[in-house]
Write a structure and sequence with these properties.
The complex is a heterodimer.
Chain A: E1 10-19, E2 22-32, E3 37-41, H1 48-55, E4 63-68, E5 71-72, H2 78-87, E6 89-92, H3 96-99, H4 106-116, H5 122-135, H6 152-164, E7 170-174, H7 182-199, E8 202-206, H8 210-216, E9 219-224, E10 227-233, H9 234-239, H10 244-251
Parallel strand pairs in A: 3-8, 3-9, 6-7, 7-8
Antiparallel strand pairs in A: 1-2, 1-4, 4-5, 9-10
Helix pairs in contact in A: 4-5, 4-6, 5-6
Chain B: E1 2-13, E2 19-31, E3 36-40, H1 47-55, E4 62-67, E5 70-71, H2 77-86, E6 88-91, H3 103-113, H4 118-131, H5 148-159, E7 166-170, H6 178-193, E8 197-201, H7 205-211, E9 214-217, H8 223-229
Parallel strand pairs in B: 3-8, 3-9, 6-7, 7-8
Antiparallel strand pairs in B: 1-2, 1-4, 4-5
Helix pairs in contact in B: 3-4, 3-5
Classes of the chains: A alpha/beta, B alpha/beta.
Family (chain B): Belongs to the ABC transporter superfamily.
Protein name (chain B): Phosphonates transport ATP-binding protein PhnL
Domain ABC transporter (chain B): 2-229
Chain lengths: 256, 230
């Protein structure tokens, strides 16, 4: 293989998680490179969310290693992992309520993340929050409103601002466009694509929406029953699927 | 620049009784820098299949597909992504874009992803859109609502934004009027002059005769044809 002069940001080796006798995810291995968007697709219960939780350090895997810039995040201490989660990583939940503090203003939601990494100057924090609200297309005049006064699409954009204000390197996304109207989804996809390119973000994106995967992901992993059954370039997996389950998944999508 | 050797491909339809459909065997093709080769053959003969294998969205069963110094039949997804960004361009018949993104941005995107500055990338996009007679009032709108011919011209502008050393063109003049057809043919000639290796599918015979140096009939690559010859 040609040397492209970089090392992977994340190396996942033989990761497994069981719930008693039931398999959460089994023997998952892959590398994620800087600036790359990896989509994980599969139906409900296929192990996508379990895998994402293990990767993001929210759940302890039973076996395997997750190396972030060469450091094993499974073996490191809980405080070390928490520092990574605040500085280098971000997690965008499907439901904005899981990623926002609903009783705190929009500006506060964004500023809080900055304060967690040591920002103390009120003016600078407010300025950064205003800048980020603009980048996710929320009017500056709404900075003191609480998220519960926002529409679902706006809440999701606020969650993204809160996550990206600290300039993370790796973003975990769990169905970020799920539960939104199609028109709102398009706006969010456009926003995410731009941010990924401009900030050079690496993303692990869990979705069951193949159209979203096609537009956002460079590579796809298809999961079934906790196992990765197919892995490749996004348009190759969708246009020339090899595994029986992937063929079924692709052929089941309604064409519009 | 583009070298295909002994390429074969079949589809296995797991959900239709596991039927195996061989579609290509023993395909060979060489395209030098500055050369444009037309793929010909009846509908269903495998022109698009071969094109998709060069683009990398169809997997090869065996053989080699070298573009520059990368063999797509062996390459990792990451290497193919880099190849598509820097070396290999593709003007497909269908425009696939994120809804809501302005046309100017759609055309500038290949340059932005190569690290070009916004001003430089947009200047190139403006030049191409103007050259292809897309009215300026449409540049700020998403091309998803455009007519077929307009979408095709946006696709062409995007495919020619970066001077790719290798280009795949799928019916680049299909739904264009005479004026725009002429612009596209001139763009293809210009790409050849700067040394691009081009593989194209052209039903427009006059266009093919003008820009293509050779024709390759893909009917010869079908497994049936191979059996007949043996």
């Amino acid at each position: 293989m040609k040397d492209m002069g970089e090392t992977p940001l994340l190396q996942v080796e033989a990761l497994s998680k069981r719930y008693g006798a039931r398999i959460g995810c089994a023997d998952v291995s892959f590398d994620l490179w800087p600036g790359e968007v990896l989509g994980i697709v599969g139906e409900s219960g296929s192990g996508k969310s379990t895998l994402l939780s293990c990767l993001a350090g929210q759940m302890a895997p039973d076996q395997g290693r997750v190396l972030y810039q060469g450091r094993d995040t499974v073996a490191m201490s809980e405080p070390e992992r928490r520092v990574l989660a605040r500085t280098d990583w971000a997690f965008v939940h499907q439901n904005p309520r899981d990623g926002l503090r609903m009783g705190v203003s929009a500006g506060g939601n964004v500023g809080e993340r900055l304060m967690a990494v040591g920002a103390r100057n009120y003016g600078a924090i407010r300025e950064a929050a205003t800048d980020w609200l603009g980048r996710v297309e929320i009017e500056a005049g709404r900075i003191d409103d609480r998220p519960r006064q926002f529409s679902g699409g706006m809440q999701q954009r606020l969650q993204i601002a809160r996550n990206l204000v600290t300039a993370p390197k790796l973003v975990f996304m769990d169905e970020p466009t799920g539960g939104l109207d199609v028109s709102v989804q398009a706006r969010l996809l456009d926003l995410l694509r731009g941010l990924v390119r401009d900030m050079g973000l690496s993303v692990i994106l869990v979705t069951h929406d193949l159209a979203v995967a096609r537009l956002l992901a460079d590579r796809l992993m298809v999961m079934q029953g906790g196992h990765v059954i197919e892995h490749g370039l996004t348009d190759q997996v969708l246009d020339d699927p090899q595994a029986p389950y992937t063929q079924l998944l692709v052929s089941s999508v309604l064409q519009v | 620049m583009i070298e295909i050797e002994n390429l074969s491909k079949s589809f296995t339809l797991h959900n239709q009784g596991g039927a195996v459909i061989p579609v290509m065997a023993g395909a060979h093709l060489r395209v030098a820098r500055g050369e444009c080769v037309a793929l010909t053959g009846a509908s269903g003969a495998g022109k698009s299949t071969l094109m998709r294998m060069i683009w990398g969205n169809y997997l090869a069963d065996a053989g080699a597909i070298r573009v520059g110094d990368l063999d797509l039949a062996q390459a990792s997804p990451r290497e193919i992504i880099a190849l598509r960004r820097e070396v290999l361009g593709y003007v497909s018949q269908f425009l696939r874009v994120v809804p809501r993104v302005p046309t100017l941005r759609v055309v500038a995107e290949p340059l932005l992803s190569l690290g070009a500055g916004e001003a430089e990338a947009e200047a190139r996009a403006r030049d191409l859109l103007a050259m292809l007679n897309i009215p300026e009032r449409l540049w700020a709108l998403s091309p998803t609502t455009f007519s077929g011919g307009e979408q095709q011209r946006v696709n062409i502008a995007r495919g020619f934004a970066h001077p790719y050393p290798a280009l795949l063109l799928d019916e680049p003049t299909a739904s264009l009027d005479a004026t725009n057809r002429e612009v596209v043919l001139a763009l293809i000639e210009e790409a050849k002059t700067r040394g691009a290796a081009i593989v194209g599918i052209f039903h427009d015979e006059a266009a093919r005769a003008r820009v293509c140096d050779r024709k390759v009939d893909v009917t010869g690559f079908s497994p049936q044809a191979r059996r007949g010859a043996a």
